[in-house]
């Protein structure tokens, strides 16, 4: 079983580099330090018995649907979760909302949108473009996807779309 180091800071990047381990960054909820952490990891990497060179996995959110409108609607559950965190409220993922701007202020939604900035959201074409952008921007060797979607069937469909646009066979 391969050992990875998962983190959301430059400290974890530095530790993974020092140990010569593959590094996964939790940018699906903490993207602020993503690029700096990748730079620290790559620049300080020491080859080990595990790896000869750095290997980066980037966590990204994916919310895929048949239309951009539907994907934005499904994304509102994750936006609500992070907006609630900005209020100091934690809880379970809530149902999506078409009026999220009426439920939260600009500061709370800004916090949510920053937390979700490493995301590919939309119809199949938009999701493919979003994933390609994340990979190109970060130089990631792999992406690991998370989808905070309230409805289980919609979440499964989102993963199916992501797999299809990435050239993978959905299970």
TrEMBL record:
In short, the EC number is 1.-.-.-
Write down the superkingdom of origin: Bacteria
Q: Example GO molecular function term?
A: oxidoreductase activity, acting on paired donors, with incorporation or reduction of molecular oxygen
- Protein name (database record): MsnO8 family LLM class oxidoreductase
Q: Which protein family is it in?
A: To bacterial alkanal monooxygenase alpha and beta chains.
Recite the UniProt keywords alphabetically: Oxidoreductase
Q: Which residues form the Luciferase-like domain?
A: 1-141
Which Gene Ontology cellular component terms are annotated? cytosol
Q: Which InterPro entries match?
A: Bact_Lucif_Oxidored, CmoO-like, Luciferase-like_dom, Luciferase-like_sf
Q: Which CDD domains match?
A: Flavin_utilizing_monoxygenases
Q: Does the keyword Oxidoreductase apply?
A: yes
This protein's record includes keyword Oxidoreductase: yes
């Amino acid at each position: 079983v391969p050992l990875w180091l998962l983190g959301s800071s430059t400290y974890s990047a530095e530790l993974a580099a020092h140990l010569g381990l593959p590094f996964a960054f939790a940018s699906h909820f903490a993207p602020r330090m993503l690029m700096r952490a990748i730079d620290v990891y790559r620049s300080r990497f020491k080859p080990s018995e595990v790896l000869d060179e750095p290997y980066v996995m980037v966590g990204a959110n994916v919310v895929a649907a048949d239309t951009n409108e539907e994907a934005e609607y499904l994304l509102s559950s994750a936006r609500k979760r992070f907006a609630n965190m900005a209020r100091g409220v934690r809880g379970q993922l809530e149902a999506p909302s078409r009026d999220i701007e009426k439920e939260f202020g600009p500061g709370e939604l800004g916090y949510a949108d920053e937390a979700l900035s490493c995301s590919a959201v939309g119809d199949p074409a938009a999701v493919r473009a979003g994933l390609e952008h994340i990979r190109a921007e970060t130089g990631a060797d792999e992406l690991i996807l998370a989808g905070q979607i309230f409805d289980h069937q919609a979440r499964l469909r989102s993963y199916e779309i992501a797999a299809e646009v990435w050239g993978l066979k959905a299970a």
